[in-house]
Amino acid sequence: MKKAKKVIIVIISIIAILLIAAAGWLHFSTYHPSSAAQKVAQTASQTNKVTVFKARHNKMTVIFYTGALVEPDSYSIWAKQVANAGYTVKVVHFPLNLAFFNVNAADKLAGKNKNYVVGGHSLGGAMASRYGHGSHNKYLRGIFLLGAYADEKGRLDKTNLDVLSITASHDKVLNWQKYQTNKKYLPKNTSYQTIKGGNHGNFGSYGQQKGDGHATISNANQQKQVASLLINWLNKVSK
User: Fold this and answer.
1) Measured between alpha carbons, how far is 91 from 23 in angstroms, rounded to an integer?
2) Cross-strand bridge partners of residue 168
3) Is the dihedral of CA 84, 85, 86, 88 positive or negative?
4) In angstroms, rounded to a whole number, what is the distance separating the alpha carbons of residues 42 and 28?
5) Which helix (H) or strand (E) holds 194?
């Protein structure tokens, strides 16, 4: 009996150590918003599930899925600019900052009988496309991808959704081979845009991402271009 108790104690201790190690890894691997992004985030309303940048006269809602291990406030700068143009932006908070834990998060944020689009950065973009693939909500108007691509489970080529794909020329995190190959999963009328001099991490504002290329334009510049490209696309989709 005593031996069994010792075994149980050892197992519990090992599990506890593994959990602590995992928590430590997540903490140090997570990308945190820049001071500029944090400042802008203070203008938004927040819950433990979503950060909302509310447009004064909302034309359409934008629901955003964050990149893997990137804190939501990291996307505040361009989100605020898009909201100022008349589109409420809702940045989803995911468990452990990983969008695959709640692919259908947009369902509860879209609002009843209101047009909306869903987009995401990196892993968040892949999950946004999967959401678009599986959604039957007639008010879903489009999907946008920032430094991301759709996979077979998120294929959108047989949908009527408008799709925007934005990449950055110095992005070294994006798997460019898969990006090119997986264009077959997007509609033929997909809008493809490239930010020259930009990189993967600057789709948000959280510093240099591991393995990424070095941008030759400022973060503020890329944020402005992301917002501008999104606004132009949203103006067409919302008509």
Assistant:
1) 23
2) 195
3) negative
4) 24
5) strand 191-195
Residues 195 and 167: their CA atoms lie apart, in Å, by 6
Dihedral angle computed from the Cα positions of residues 155, 107, 96 and 82, in that order, rounded to the nearest 10 degrees: 80
DSSP string, 88-123: EEEEEP-GGG-GGG-TTGGGGTS-TT--EEEEEETH
Sign of CA dihedral 40, 43, 45, 47: positive
DSSP state of 184: G
- Comparing C-alpha atoms, which of 198, 203, 171 is closest to residue 91? 203
Check if the beta carbon of residue 87 is closer than 8 Å to that of residue 55: yes
User: Using CA atoms, how far apart are residues 120 and 87, in angstroms rounded to an integer?
Assistant: 16
Distances (CA, A) of 223 to 76, 138, 159, 171: 10, 30, 29, 15
Instruction: Locate the domains of the chain by residue range.
Output: 1-30, 32-237
Superfamily of domain 32-237: Alpha/Beta hydrolase fold, catalytic domain (3.40.50.1820)
- The two tokens of residue 83 are 């909201």
What are the pLDDT digits (tens) for 168-223?
Answer: 999 999 999 999 999 999 999 999 999 999 999 999 999 999 999 999 999 999 99
Residues pairing with 57 in the sheet? none
For 94-116, how does the pLDDT look when each residue is reduced to its tens digit (9 = 90+)?
999 999 999 999 999 998 899 99
